[in-house]
Amino acid sequence: MATPGGPRPGNLPPNYNPNSIADNLHNLQINRPNQPPYPGNGPRGPPPAFGQQPNSQSQPFPSSGPYSSSPFSGPSRPGPPPPGVAPRGAGPPSSGPPHGSMPPFMAANRPTGGGGGGTSSSNAPPMPASRPLTSGPLPSSAPVGPPGPFASSPLTSGPPGPPPNVGGGSMSNGPPTFGSQSMQGGPQYPSANVRPRPSTGPPPAPQTMSSFLGGPADNQPRGPVPPFSAPPRGMQPPTGPPPFSAQGQGAPHPQGSPFGAQPWQMQSRQNAPPPPISGSAQPPRMFGMPPPLPNQQSMATISPATGPSGNAVSGPSKIDPNQIPRPVPSSSVLLHETRQGNQANPPPPATSEFIARDTGNCSPRYMRSTINQIPCTSDLLNTSGMQLALLVQPLALPHPSEEPIQIVDFGEGGPVRCSRCKGYINPFMKFVDQGRRFICNFCGFTDETPRDYQCNLGPDGRRRDADERPELCRGTVEFVATREFLVRDPMPAVFFFLIDVSMNAVQTGATAGACSAISRVIADLPEGPRTFVGIATFDSTVHFYNLKRALQQPLMLIVPDVEDVYTPLQTDVVVPLSECRQHLDLLLESIPTMFQNNKTADSAFGAGMKAAFLAMKSTGGKLLVFQSVLPSVGIAALSAREAEGRTNISAGDKEPHRLLQPVDKTMKTMAIEFAEYQVSVDVFITTQSYVDIASISVIPKTTGGKIYYYHPFSALSDPAKLYNDLRWNVTRPQGFEAVMRVRCSQGLQVQEYSGNFCKRIPTDVDLPAVDCDKSIMVTLKHDDKLPDGTECSFQCAILYTTIYGQRRIRVSTLSLPCTTMLSNLFRSADLDTQFSCFLKQAANEISSAPLLQVRDRVTDLCINILHSYRKFCATVSSSGQLILPEALKLLPLYTLALIKSIGLRTDGRIDDRSFWINYVSALSVQLAIPLVYPRMMSIHDLNSKEMDGSVIPSPIPLSSEHVSDDGIYLLENGEDCLIYIGSSVDPDITQKLFGISSASEIPSQFVLEQYDNPLSKRLHEVVNEIRSQRCNYLRLRLCKKGDPSGMMFFSYMVEDKSSNGLSYVEFLVHVHRQIQSKMT
Ligand SMILES: [Zn+2]
């Protein structure tokens, strides 16, 4: 679960440089012009990445427009036109960040941090992108060229800080004093000491086949087994070092001495020499290195006390709940080389903290497969019960210590591509004939090497310049897009804010919260002539504002017709930020007052969006909507169908859940039109009631946006989160007008894409906006056999426009070995990725299939996989044991948790379920796991714990047995953070932490304050760390037994038996029985 962050002290990776900005985004000010961590990272004039051809950077960014054209189609290089090429050209293009690295957008900092409504502690990490509080001097911003800081990898960790006091007036009790201090002019650069970053991922505990039986497992042939002993049946003994050698994910990773053995020498541009790693420090472990162990299958067994026949289960009581598989956090940062010895290294768990070194395959952050060896045939895949899919996150945030992505400029000719399939040049294209020709690793076609790109081959058959050319030795590179990828000039960065000012919105403080957040975030937008803004408000009509006129009072223009809207001014509604900054501040300050007595309860939400769209249509851009009530009038008005649907729900969900589907096609039609004009919509729902998220979410889902949900909106505790969410939204690395395509080697083809985008042709996905948090699932299918002993390649190419107007093509390539052995598939299974796919598929089905059917399907997927393993790979003959492949031993637990999740329960509110479905849609792998299996820890004893260098305490199982009445527990799932206060906690502790003497005094609206005592400070550190890891300003809620808050907390105790499902032990018994019945 840990996400990127800085390495822990004492554990520094070799190339870690404490002084580098990139390493500590925490403190970054977003627009600060500072020295780039990597010199020369300016957006525009990227220094030539190595190997680049000379004229690269000198080219101004081409102009021609991206837009509807298919980037892919562009003719790529000279070369015969592709026979039968896909409609749009084939290659995906993308564009990348400036050279050296980065996020197109520059980095931002991640949200987190304490502050406003949240915690704020003095030693809280400073908020990164945070701006100086209101009055502080604005950081100077960097004009156009975002330099450096951003440019680097950053983002990952910094906690952004929440504003210390958001919204001033509206929130009564501001955040604690401490909050602000970290932000104000504080040190901009982080001090050398990096925040320790605990990694929470599941640890690779060395367990391998162990019996989880309480008692001695008598009939086990293998006793407590030695880790990789017993060669599973059917497996061939390894010959040679297996690329994916035994170890399951959970297996211990061999000691590798990461450092010693392989010094990372990259990052030559960093200033400081890597700190020496002392022997005593725990070095990060190298992940993925072939363990020095025999290539044997590891597995876990559980003996649920069944009789020999397998039928009689005497009761789960014999299973020791303390021995069943659970995630174990790993405490150190893993180093991962993507390839070694010319073989792919299986990636570390997505939920662990790792530093990837791209040695030919792309980092698993950008693309990971459900299985790290590819079955040669569909029969083999089907037999395994697993599915083959990729999760791609093309703009994912790198770890601060990772080497930046190289920018490559091929000049006017554009990147070298296969003339048949349009695949981009990558380390797996094979040069032959003295370098004069190359063979495509996707379609097998042999092409002529462009004359100016030829190079002799060395004795090993590789080009002699391969190590100097990023595109020939790195799994991920960014190509500068040439004119052929443009259909128009790259679009400017346009941000249009649409604010609900209807009666409810104003009265609940939502309008003031939105205006305050926008006002603060404006300063974080990139400066320069390419940044445009616009503002409109709506109740039953739509109101635009002339942002240019130098008036004391903002000039409002009302659009009364909400059935057939128009934009009142062709100009001056969307204007350059530099020309309206002052008016904007004035306007945002005035809006809450202007509408304070508004009695209009109706909402013309659809009309407001449509009018805003018309204003942005010529350029495209981001439309950020703040909405508080159900859209009731005008275009796309909705009705409160929740009540009407209640009956159906309780009736047992016999038919597909219509309330989870959009009410009609109106929103979808609007969304498709928005997407065509490159307008992406994010909706911030600040409400007290049902707003029909199922219908509304179609807009963000189709346009590459997202729903943010604050329910019930609290004017006291939510503004801080609203501000942080908005800030991260606009400052994180992102791109506009993007088109993405995934290619794979012959024998496989893309079956389907799933995520938040618009699809107009089968092969490509259109993303009006794409950012570092968005993930897309790509399912694959066989259309032929893959030759054993070879590798199969996947390439994700995304063409996009950076926030600075550069057109880039980011290309990530992953090459994995093909196999004919089932045992290899199990050994190389990627649990996190497989489970994320289950989750997304379940979410896709919830609105179209009966819930029971969806739950059964999820359970069956789990059972089928384990059955296949039991039948074909396990060596144990006793039917009395449930045998789990080591790599997938947590699959039953996660499956059970999924069945009990908000989306698959019937007792949830419709909007909560719709939000869940939308949230899952573009969710990254590392956040998918905690969403269903949250992290829980005790916090009443924070001061007495041995933290072992980690800020976050060890997680405890999600079982009420572990929740005591005299304890206080924090549970977080990446989105929400619940704090449960037991009924008999020592009053001294509740007083120290929350300023109350018992759970009965819990306020309905809550802001975590920091008090002057060590326990309170520790809690703030923990909360800030979690926010930083999650890139999300989690909403905090206090819970106690006996009311809805307590019920919500206990609904996350997924190991308990409840109305929504079996207990974990019972579920294991159930799975075991099902497998047994399939075996007979
Ligand atoms: Zn090809």
Number of helices: 24
Question: Which range best describes the helical content: under 10%, 10-25%, 25-40%, 40-55%, 55-70% or over 70%?
Answer: 10-25%
Gross geometry = globular
Ions and ligands: zinc ion
* Helix/strand structural class: alpha/beta
Q: pLDDT average, as an integer?
A: 76
Q: Could you give the distance between the termini?
A: 39 Å
Return Rg in Å. 28 Å
Question: Could you explain the architecture of this structure?
Answer:
- The protein is α/β, with parallel strands linked by helices and 1080 residues long.
- The protein has 24 helices and 33 strands.
- Strands 15, 16, 17, 18, 19, 20, 21 and 22 form an 8-stranded mixed sheet that branches.
- A hairpin with a 6-residue loop joins strand 12 and strand 13.
- The chain is globular and about 75 Å long.
- The chain binds zinc ion.
- Zinc ion (ZN) binds at residues 418, 420-421, 423, 440, 442-443, 445.
Give a brief outline of the structure:
This protein has 1080 residues and is an alpha/beta fold.
Key words describing this protein structure:
eight-stranded mixed β-sheet, 22% helix, binds zinc ion, alpha/beta, single chain, disordered N terminus, 24 helices, 1080 residues, seven-stranded mixed β-sheet
List the helices and strands and how they pair.
Blueprint lengths: L147 H4 L25 H7 L74 H4 L23 E3 L11 E4 L31 E4 L1 E2 L2 E2 L9 E4 L9 E3 L4 E2 L2 H7 L4 E4 L13 E3 L21 E3 L4 E3 L6 E3 L21 H4 L2 E5 L12 E8 L2 H5 L2 H13 L8 E8 L3 E5 L8 E5 L14 E3 L4 H14 L10 H12 L4 E7 L13 H10 L15 H11 L2 E8 L6 H4 L1 H6 L3 E4 L7 H14 L2 E11 L3 E7 L10 E7 L4 E7 L8 E11 L5 E13 L2 H6 L3 H16 L4 H22 L9 E4 L5 H9 L10 H12 L3 H8 L2 E4 L29 E5 L3 E6 L5 H8 L19 H17 L4 E5 L4 H8 L12 H16 L1
Parallel strand pairs: 1-3, 3-6, 8-28, 10-14, 15-16, 15-20, 20-21, 21-22, 32-33
Antiparallel strand pairs: 2-29, 4-5, 7-9, 9-26, 11-12, 12-13, 14-28, 16-17, 16-19, 17-18, 23-25, 23-27, 24-26, 27-28, 30-31, 31-32
Helix pairs in contact: 7-8, 7-14, 16-17, 16-19, 16-20, 17-18, 17-24
The structure holds zinc ion (ZN).
